[in-house]
Amino acid sequence: MTSPQPVARSRPSTLLDSIDQFGASFDAAAAHVGVIERNILLAGYRIRVEFAGPALVPVIQPAFDHLAEHDGGQAADLSVCVWDATSTGVRPLPLPADVLHRGETGPRYHGEDGGIVVHAADATLSVLDARRKTALHYLPDANNALWYQKATPLKDIVHAWTSWHDLQLIHAAAVGNHDGGVLIAGVAGSGKSTTSLACLRGGLAYAGDDYVLVDIERAFVHSLYSSAKLEWDNFDRHPELFLPANSRADPKALAFLARDVRDRMARGFPLRALLLPTITGREETRAIPTTTARALLGLAPSTMLQMPGHNQQSLGAMARLVDGVPAFQLELGTDLSAIPDVVEAVLADVTGR
Amino acid sequence: MPVSEMDRFEVSRPEVVGSVVDGEVVAINLDTGSYYNISGAGVDVWTAIEPAASAHEVTARLAHRFGLPVDELATAVTSFMEELLAEGLIRPADAGATGAELSADDAPSDGQVAFSPPVLERFTDMEDLLLVDPVHDVTDRGWPHVEAG
Predict the structure, then answer these.
(1) Residue A126 — φ and ψ, nearest 5°?
(2) How far is CA A273 from each of CA A11, A203, A206, rounded to the nearest angstrom?
(3) Residue B56's pLDDT band (cuts 50, 70, 90)
(4) What is the pLDDT of residue A73?
(5) Are B18 and B67 in contact (CB under 8 A)?
(6) Closest to A12 in 3D by CA, of A127, A124, A152, A170
(7) What is the structure's pLDDT at A124?
(8) Residues in chain A within 8 Å Cβ distance of B142
(9) Topology (CATH) of A168-350
């Protein structure tokens, strides 16, 4: 195959022009290799993913397997077109630099204009045109997709799209039972994954490991990804739960729960409480009520600083969420098997059971 | 930078976002990755500065709210505003954009509110997240910056 080429058109000068030309690049790629369609039901919305050829299907689809819809006949609420240059021979035209914004203290290439959001990260490009209910996602080479891109595919598009649908992409794990569920929030190393994994082992349902969608007004958690990102030693302790989905050379292990423990995946549940884990070194695990401000400190910065385009409105939405949900400091003990009991006790307590 | 009595300041929007929850302020500097909890009378300082205010106006407002003499509060207010300024949470207000002067009478006061000194708690454990954001090849030629092959 020759080197991938852009579709031969003039260099775009506006954001809208860029999007049109970006779309033309996908069309050219699809014309080369054909289109494979997959449908998912996300928070009640139908998302159609159109792949130019098969190369990106194993990169993007596994994390959404638990949300797969086999009835593709209905109109989609969002169509996402994805392609890579290596397998299709088509790369996009460069976007004009002035549609992207570089933050003062770091690279944050992000542009928004009238319902169109452009975000560049890790050599990928994501574009959402919310008014036309379309999105485009480009990677240079499907074979070189990074492990965390497989864990949270299309994250930038989902993040931009949710702001049009009263949903918020939240950086938190979510587990639950018949009473509802909890969000487990915190910075890296706080014990978020330890807690969610212990709960999974203890029999609770699992709606997400790293990112979930939350309907703020209804206080309802929607599962987004079936992926789990684990420290390798943690992963190795649970051969009964997971199969490896990435290389040992990667810094963390990636597993897909929709494949490995499908019956434990939940599409969502009412949000009953927010848990903020901390590792104590003591044996006992306990949940201590905490303030609304501490809840917001635990939830908002890690969500807002990891994703571009957040603003005062996003913080206001998360403030409304924590204002209506009890929050607890979850002091994690060394006996991990006791964690799910404490989480279930919180659920029983806040729901009055 | 010292804060003089009459210079007006405002919250550094849009890079700084803040919300009052349960009597405390949570603020995030989206550019630096630092985030903050403001408590005590700092909450009153923050809400007074939201629409732009001078240290003089903020002090008058707090004096009304807490039933204390202005002289007792002036130093605490000024030094707290200097802290906010040093963290980039507030900035000098654009002279052309300032709103109506803040009236001390606007501040709620039931004579029962006890003054507690303003406290600014700073968290920096998220700053690395911004630093590890991969560098993208965006130049004045746009993105992606790939030579035609």
Answers:
(1) -125, 135
(2) 51, 18, 15
(3) very high
(4) 74
(5) no
(6) A127
(7) 83
(8) 11, 94-97, 100
(9) Rossmann fold (3.40.50)
**Chain A within 8 Å of B130 (Cβ-Cβ)?**
yes
Chain centroid, CA A54 distance in Å: 22
**A and B: number of Cβ contacts within 8 A:** 131
Q: Is A121's CB within 8 Å of B21's CB?
A: no
Along chain A (353 residues), what's the average pLDDT of each consecutive run of 10 residues? 54 68 91 96 96 97 94 86 95 67 48 74 83 92 92 93 89 95 88 89 93 95 94 84 89 89 92 95 94 96 84 91 96 93 96 85
Q: Do A105 and B130 touch (CB under 8 A)?
A: yes
Ranges in chain A annotated CATH 3.40.50: 168-350
3-state secondary structure B43-102: HHHHHHHCCCEEHHHHHHHHHHHHCCCHHHHHHHHHHHHHHHHHCCCEEECCHHHCCCCC
With contact defined as beta carbons under 8 Å apart, do B27 and B38 qualify? yes
Structure tokens at A346: 């919180």
Please tell me the predicted confidence (pLDDT) of residue A5.
60
Q: What are the domain boundaries of chain B?
A: 8-131
Cα–Cα dist B52/B57, whole Å? 10
The answer to whether residue B118 neighbours chain A at the CB level (below 8 Å) is no
Q: Residues A307, A310, A314, A319: is their CA dihedral positive or negative?
A: positive
The span from the CA of A324 to the CA of B2, in Å, is 40
Compute the 3-state secondary structure of chain B and give helix, strand, coil in percent, each to the nearest 5.
30, 25, 45
Mean pLDDT over B93-121 rounds to 68
Contact: B26, A121; criterion CB under 8 Å: no
Given a contact cutoff of 8 angstroms between Cβ atoms, the answer to whether A49 and A80 are in contact is: yes
Residue B143: band (very low, low, confident or very high) from pLDDT cuts 50, 70, 90: very low
Q: Cis before residue A326, ω within 30 degrees of 0?
A: no
Question: Region B121-144: what's the mean pLDDT?
Answer: 58
- Amino acid at position A31, single letter: A
